[in-house]
Amino acid sequence: MLPFDPSKRNSFQRQICDGDLVIVYERHDSMKAIKVNNGSELQNRFGVFKHADWIGKPFGSKALSTKGGFVYLLAPTPELWTLVLSHRTQILYIADISFVVTYLEIVPGCLVLESGTGSGSLTTSLARAVAPSGHVHTFDFHEQRATLAREDFEKNGMSSLITVFVRDIQGEGFPEEFCGTADSVFLDLPQPWLALPSVARMLKQDGVVCSFSPCIEQVQRSCETLRAKFTDIRTFEILLRTYEIKEARIKVEEEDKGSPVGSLPYKRRQYSSSEENHECMEKTNSIMARPSRETKGHTGYLTFARLACI
Fold it and tell me: Where would I find the tRNA (adenine(58)-N(1))-methyltransferase catalytic subunit TRM61 C-terminal domain in this sequence (predicted)?
């Protein structure tokens, strides 16, 4: 993510500098995060790319290799960071992330608590949503994961918006210093119901909590606990269906050439030999859309609830 400098954050047209993090785009399913280092090189199937040639170019530029191949140099947005980060744990992807940010009602200036930092995929999107004056406090019980996540946030320029803690939220709850200050809380825990009493103390009046769970039994147990102090309890499952858009050659009869969608289904005509010579089928190029063969299925259940007003 670009550093949140007020003079630069509204534009991706600033020039790439030595030490910046860039997303090198080879194709839609092949990207990598590279730290620009004057004197270093990137080698891939398209050739050798010198980092020195990247410095001074705006984000989004096409970079040429010594062989004439090219890649694109993109700014590290949270969406792209989700696609290139190291998977230390299972991560949330864009479909779930966008839904979480919207339903948690996160806007600039919010204070958000997150338990289950993991690889930091969601954390970067939360940070962008609260910028420039908000903050995300994220907790993970695993010290090494927390350290690696902290390094990643430093690398992608988000450290000023994110503080990483090592703490077992299921066993200890959130620190009391955040009592009554959080606008939203996100939980990605094996037993989220154990943390819900602490969540109720952390949230402001009318604050919202979200719990991500892969199993419906976890959802049922959490909802039982939520009923004590929360209202407006809802659970969602986000299923994303992508489409492939391709150009293909199809056969079109003469009588259907004027139709933008071709003819409607009908019983196949039986042509005589003379008719076949007269009314032949013509091949033409057309754009076709069809569901992707590799459709992602279930990721997890998102359970939202609002702290009941006293």
Answer: 69-306
